[in-house]
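user: Here is a favour to ask of a fellow structure person. I have my own habits and do not want them to colour yours. Could you put it straight underneath, so I can go through it closely?

assistant:
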Amino acid sequence: FLASADYHGAMVEVVRSRCSSRVGMTGIVVKDTKFTFEIVTKENVVKTCPKEHTVFRLKLPLEDEGKRPLEFEILGSMFEQRAPDRANKKYRLHLDMDL
C-alpha cells in the first residue's frame, strides 16, 4: 500500500535524520524525485529533503471527523526510486542503525 502510493500533496514530517536541522520539518510534498522530497513549509518556502537516512511521518485523515488520523513512519532510504518504479518493487526488512 505505502510502497505504491503517490506522495504528491501528502502532509509529511521529518521524524529522524542524520542532519539534526531537518528534524521537525513539516509540510506538503510538491515533488517526489528519486532521491528527494521537495516540501512546502508553513512559511511558503520550498525545501529539499533527501530521502537517504531520513524517517518521514505521514498522516492520513479518516472520513470520520471524530477519529484521529492514521500515522505511518517510512524509512526514506527504502523509497529511493521513482514513484512508478516503486509500485512493482518487493521490500525486505533491513534495519538501519546509523540514524
